[in-house]
């Protein structure tokens, strides 16, 4: 209207005034016209509608049968509908009805998982299916009415009578040995007229040699072959050439512009066959090629592939890499979901585990799962995730595992193969695409800056000459400096910042001179990475053109950030460093800055990168040189040298394939040169084996309890840690049968006196076990150690007697187990050791002699000096004799020499023997009672001693010891009991109670019952269903929800308090909290303490304090202010925690908030549900949730 020459026509109302009137007078809106708005439609109530339900799926359907020849309709029959009524809530079958679209990707905690591959019984086969199979087998007969002419063929084969059975193995040998003689042999060909056509003159003669095989025995033989443990993994020889590779794979699913290595070709051949492979190779060897081919195969077959990584950052990087190779790629992480319906999905292993437990429908179309960095299974915290996923994968999913070189690839592959019920092919290569050379660097400044000494050459051999030269160079520097000066202190130790700066500048000058940039300098401290980078303010490693490219790229990346975030100190400092070709990479760096550094490093624009060891994981980012600041690191408990696997992982970043002939690894000798043994073990030592980190978690128990056909015991049996025991079950079952047979053949003891001999055996066995266990701890007590001096009289168990007096001569503490040298009495020329003396029944026989008094030889009194263990000392008496123990021992040792054997004992020995004889003939001798003499209050010891007294009284009152043939009867009873004990032990090995984690499982199950997560029958209660929705810390979050701790709080306060669940850094500054937050912290710790006490009461070993202290509140103030809208630059002044750690904490917090929101939805708390949504929205802003550069 404004464009008209005279304005709007007078008949039209001006638009501006019309809009103004509309906005300023809401009372004129028609919604306030009650007559028009308030209308009521009468609704007739129909109570019967409440009784209506969805119609169940029909159990039967109609099948039309047609004549095979004419196609005419023959009849219509009613058959049972397979998989009728199966839904994602009730069935584990792949044929079940798909769930709603909203649950298609991640599934739902109310869904049941698909049936895991490798389990013996498949519940997806309903009874109707089994009945149909049985009926089909009854109709089939393999001994008559067999057709010989296939449909559409004129002739067929007649295999003769099927009534004869032959051994398959011998038959194959006969055929092989006679293959040359049977070139003209014939098969009886039948035409439609069934008249045989002779193919050879010696028809009958040759036909008699052809075996007829019983099909049933062939099938049984193949089934037995499957059970062999050696068949689960096959090591592929990659040294053999594959000249016919392109004949074997004529139409590859994917091609590369370079020639493949042998191990890659072998892997591709097995992938084409749909077989599982395990690739173990060094960093940068090209394992990703195998992953790419599996993805290409899935796209060729119109199926799906999932690529899993151990960390989220690696998932983002792989998403970018695969996005350039394959267009249809998606990403699933805790907070990001991109193209979730893609044929190739990148995700962390935890996400895949959640999808498997929640029955995601994506699993139906899944053909390949690629596990990258499988050696991460050794991680104590997260290694269990890999085992869970491998166990839960359905049978139709193929597996590709990529790992660094490990020594037990066959063992691990055997476990996976046995678990999934199919063979795993292991392809390993120790060949490095770029060989490594390892050096020691002793240079400082000036002339010494080029002091670099080769200690391991490219062939992997240690060079002693180079090591000795490094030692000499280091010693010469110590001699050159004046003692006591600053330079001397720097030479002996790490030195100050000036010394550190000079060293770094000298090293960089040396590397630039040798053209060995870029370099990655691994430093095992975030603070030291930052300090080292700040020392190089005068260093510029890039050209003007490179500096311009860096500036342009950096500005483009940070332009995504809010204005104030672009001026953060870390951002501006990083920009300054990058413009000089220097980068820093560790967990304290902002995620977007780490990605900028990674991308610039891949482009070759970062010449020097200070990084922690996390940079060495996953994505291929090689450098020309790798430098180790030190070879010692702190692992959370103390300082130690790098393990071979850790060193190899980081050193493997040296050497760029196609650019460098060798990679250079340099160790800085800031202090003394490391020991050659330490270097040899670290550089050339065996990498760490893959080991099971399986443990039973609350999440695992709850997720499996909601599934009727899966048990926690099934998961435990199939863990990697149980594989060795499970592989021996066949032999154990055979042993069990033999023991059953032996028990049936045991003779019955016929003696009226020895009616209680079984009870005597059990009591004596308990007494011996408890006595030996107690004596070892008793004799190690300081009070008892003071009494164990030479000359102390002891009551010992020696050979078949437990009542011998002995004199202590010395105590040998050099070995792991203390040994006591004693002098004791023996009969005649010395008691000959009998094989039966160490049997348990002979010790029991000795117990029966205790009530007869002390042992004294019945014939000529002799003596012996022997060594005994602590468990053989039965009592320590109060008697202390004055002896010359050294002379007694020397005299005894001298008389053991053949020519001095007949010499009489010396005076010291004779006096000791006489005194020992006198004491042995005494009526009694007083023994030390720790409870009375030393007033010990150890309740455990008091209980054991009381139990010993009770057992000893029972043994003394036994009537069987009065039997004249007690020794023979006890030996017979012992043999019988031993077999029965072995039978019980074997039965235990076959039971589920023998599983490594059985006790932990039952303890955690008791905790869940005590806290009302499950009932007495193991059925999930409301709490259990809520806990299933939690990603971590299931119990504490569920308890907070059910105790209404969060409902009364504001969204910012809820987010702040829940940060204690995701923040893990120790030694952070204490926050300033509001009274509401202080109260919330108290309530959380109170609930955590309650859970900790319940766990301890149910048998778990974790201390209550440790469980409570894992929830750290140091970041509560930061998160609270962030949720209230404070800029990131300002919240950095509230704590000493680095920026990257704060961002990581808040990102993980968002996942926890969404878990609590789901819990509120389940229990029907709309207020909490709304607050959790508001809290999640409040923290998701600005730099903390800036999109990854890899996903743009």
UniProtKB/TrEMBL annotation:
Principal subcellular localization: cytoplasm
Name of the protein in its database record: Helicase SKI2W
Entry superkingdom: Eukaryota
Catalysed reactions, semicolon-separated: ATP + H2O = ADP + phosphate + H(+)
Lineage of the species this protein comes from: Eukaryota, Metazoa, Ecdysozoa, Arthropoda, Crustacea
MF terms (GO), sorted A to Z: ATP binding; hydrolase activity; RNA binding; RNA helicase activity
Domain Helicase ATP-binding per the UniProt entry, residue ranges: 268-424
GO-annotated biological processes: nuclear-transcribed mRNA catabolic process, 3'-5' exonucleolytic nonsense-mediated decay
Alphabetical list of PROSITE patterns matching this protein: HELICASE_ATP_BIND_1, HELICASE_CTER
Domain Helicase C-terminal residue range list: 503-705
Keywords attached to this entry: ATP-binding, Cytoplasm, Helicase, Hydrolase, Nucleotide-binding, RNA-binding
Any single Pfam family the record assigns to this protein: DSHCT
Subcellular location: Cytoplasm
GO cellular component: Ski complex
KW Nucleotide-binding (keyword) present: yes
């Amino acid at each position: 209207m404004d464009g008209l020459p005279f304005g709007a026509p007078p008949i039209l109302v001006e638009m501006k005034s019309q809009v103004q009137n509309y906005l300023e007078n809401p009372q004129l809106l028609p919604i306030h016209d009650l007559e028009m708005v308030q209308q009521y439609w009468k609704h007739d109530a129909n109570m019967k509608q409440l009784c209506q339900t969805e119609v169940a799926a029909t159990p039967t359907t109609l099948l039309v049968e047609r004549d095979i020849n004419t196609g005419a309709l023959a009849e219509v029959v009613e058959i049972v509908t397979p998989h009728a009524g199966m839904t994602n809530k009730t069935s584990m079958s792949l044929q079940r009805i798909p769930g709603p679209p909203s649950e298609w990707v991640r599934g739902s905690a109310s869904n049941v998982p698909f049936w895991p591959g490798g389990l013996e019984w498949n519940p997806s086969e309903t009874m109707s299916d089994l009945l149909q199979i049985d009926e089909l087998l009854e109709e089939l007969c393999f001994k008559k009415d067999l057709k010989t002419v296939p449909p559409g063929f004129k002739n067929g084969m007649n295999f003769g009578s099927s009534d004869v059975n032959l051994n398959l193995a011998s038959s194959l040998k006969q055929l092989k040995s006679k293959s040359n003689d049977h070139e003209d042999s014939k098969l009886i060909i039948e035409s439609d007229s069934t008249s045989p056509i002779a193919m050879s003159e010696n028809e009958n003669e040759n036909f008699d040699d052809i075996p007829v095989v019983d099909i049933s025995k062939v099938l049984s033989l193949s089934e037995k072959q499957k059970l062999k443990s050696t068949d689960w993994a096959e090591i592929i020889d990659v040294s053999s050439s594959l000249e016919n590779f392109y004949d074997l794979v004529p139409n590859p699913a994917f091609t590369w512009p370079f020639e493949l290595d042998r191990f890659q070709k072998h892997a591709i051949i097995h992938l084409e066959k749909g077989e599982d492979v395990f690739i173990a190779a060094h960093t940068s060897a090209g394992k990703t090629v195998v992953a790419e081919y599996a993805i290409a195969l899935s796209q060729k077959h119109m199926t799906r592939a999932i690529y899993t990584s151990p960390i989220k950052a690696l998932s983002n990087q792989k998403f970018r890499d695969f996005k350039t190779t394959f267009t249809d790629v998606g990403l699933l992480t805790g907070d990001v979901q991109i193209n979730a319906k893609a044929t190739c999905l990148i995700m962390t292993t935890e996400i895949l585990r959640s999808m498997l437990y929640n029955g995601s429908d994506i699993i139906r179309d899944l053909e390949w799962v690629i596990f990258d960095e499988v050696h991460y299974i050794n991680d104590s915290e997260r290694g269990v995730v890999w085992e869970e996923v491998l166990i839960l994968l359905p049978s139709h999913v193929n597996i590709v595992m990529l790992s660094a070189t490990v020594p037990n690839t066959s063992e691990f592959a055997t476990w996976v193969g046995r678990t999934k019920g199919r063979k795993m092919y292991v392809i390993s290569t120790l060949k490095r695409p770029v060989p490594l050379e390892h050096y020691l660097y002793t240079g400082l400044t000036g002339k010494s800056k080029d002091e670099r000494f080769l200690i391991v050459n490219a062939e992997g051999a240690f060079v002693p000459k180079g090591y000795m030269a490094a030692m000499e160079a280091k010693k010469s520097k110590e001699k050159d400096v004046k003692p006591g000066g600053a330079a001397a202190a720097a030479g002996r130790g790490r030195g100050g910042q000036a010394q550190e700066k000079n060293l770094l500048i000298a090293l960089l000058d040396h590397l630039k001179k040798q053209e060995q940039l870029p370099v990655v300098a691994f430093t095992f401290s975030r603070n030291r990475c930052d300090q080292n980078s700040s020392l190089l303010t005068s260093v510029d490693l890039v050209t003007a053109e490179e500096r311009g490219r860096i500036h342009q790229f950096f500005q483009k990346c940070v332009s995504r950030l809010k204005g104030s975030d672009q001026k953060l100190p870390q951002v501006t400092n990083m920009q300054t460093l990058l413009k000089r070709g220097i980068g820093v990479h560790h967990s304290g760096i902002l995620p977007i800055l780490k990605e900028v550094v990674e991308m610039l490093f891949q482009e070759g624009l970062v010449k020097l990168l200070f990084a922690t060891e996390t940079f060495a994981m996953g994505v291929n980012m090689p450098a020309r040189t790798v430098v180790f600041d030190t070879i010692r690191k702190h692992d959370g408990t103390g300082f130690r040298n790098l393990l071979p696997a850790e060193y190899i992982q980081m050193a493997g970043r040296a050497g760029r394939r196609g650019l460098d002939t060798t990679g250079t690894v340099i160790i800085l000798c800031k202090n003394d040169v490391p020991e050659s043994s330490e270097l040899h073990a670290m550089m050339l030592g065996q990498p760490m084996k893959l080991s099971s980190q399986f443990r039973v978690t609350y999440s695992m128990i709850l997720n499996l309890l909601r599934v009727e056909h899966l048990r926690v015991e099934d998961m435990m049996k199939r863990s990697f840690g149980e594989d060795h025991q499970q592989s021996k079950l066949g032999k154990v079952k055979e042993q069990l049968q033999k023991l059953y047979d032996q028990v049936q053949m045991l003779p019955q003891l016929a003696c009226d006196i020895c009616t209680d001999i079984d009870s005597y055996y059990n009591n004596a066995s308990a007494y011996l076990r408890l006595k030996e266990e107690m004596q070892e701890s008793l004799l190690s007590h300081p009070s008892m150690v003071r009494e164990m001096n030479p000359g102390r009289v002891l009551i010992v168990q020696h050979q078949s007697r437990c009542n011998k007096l002995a004199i202590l001569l010395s105590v040998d503490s050099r070995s792991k187990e203390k040994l006591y040298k004693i002098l004791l009495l023996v009969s005649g020329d010395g008691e000959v050791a009998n094989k039966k003396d160490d049997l348990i029944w002979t010790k029991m026989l000795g117990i029966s002699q205790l009530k007869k008094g002390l042992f004294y030889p019945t014939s000529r009194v002799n003596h012996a000096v022997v060594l005994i263990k602590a468990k053989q000392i039965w009592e320590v008496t109060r008697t202390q004799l004055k002896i010359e123990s050294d002379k007694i021992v020397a005299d005894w040792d001298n008389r053991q020499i053949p020519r001095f054997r007949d010499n009489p004992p010396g005076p010291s020995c004779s006096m000791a023997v006489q005194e020992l004889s006198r004491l042995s003939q005494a009526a009694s001798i007083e023994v030390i009672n720790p409870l009375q003499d030393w007033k010990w209050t150890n309740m455990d010891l008091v209980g054991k001693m009381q139990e010993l007294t009770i057992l000893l009284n029972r043994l003394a009152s036994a009537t069987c010891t009065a039997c004249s043939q007690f020794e023979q009867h006890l030996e017979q009873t012992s043999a019988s009991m031993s077999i029965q004990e072995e039978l019980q032990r074997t039965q235990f090995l076959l039971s589920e109670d023998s599983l490594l984690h059985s006790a932990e499982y039952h303890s955690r199950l008791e905790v869940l019952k005590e806290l009302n997560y499950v009932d007495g029958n193991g059925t999930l209660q409301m709490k259990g269903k809520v806990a299933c929705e939690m990603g971590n810390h299931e119990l504490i979050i569920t308890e907070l929800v059910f105790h209404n701790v969060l409902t009364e709080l504001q969204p910012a306060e809820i987010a702040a308090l829940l940060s204690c669940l995701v923040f893990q850094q120790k030694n952070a500054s204490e926050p300033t909290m509001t009274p509401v937050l202080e109260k919330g912290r108290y309530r959380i710790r109170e609930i955590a303490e309650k859970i900790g006490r319940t766990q301890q009461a149910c048998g778990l070993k974790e201390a209550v304090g440790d469980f409570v202290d894992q929830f750290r509140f140091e970041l509560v103030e930061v998160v609270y202010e962030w949720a209230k809208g404070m800029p990131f630059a300002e919240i950095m002044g509230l704590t000493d925690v680095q920026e990257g750690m704060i961002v990581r904490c808040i990102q993980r917090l968002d996942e926890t908030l969404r878990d609590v929101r789901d819990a509120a939805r389940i229990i029907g708390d709309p207020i909490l549900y709304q607050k959790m949504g508001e809290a999640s929205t409040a923290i998701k802003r600005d730099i903390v949730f800036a999109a990854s550069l890899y996903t743009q």
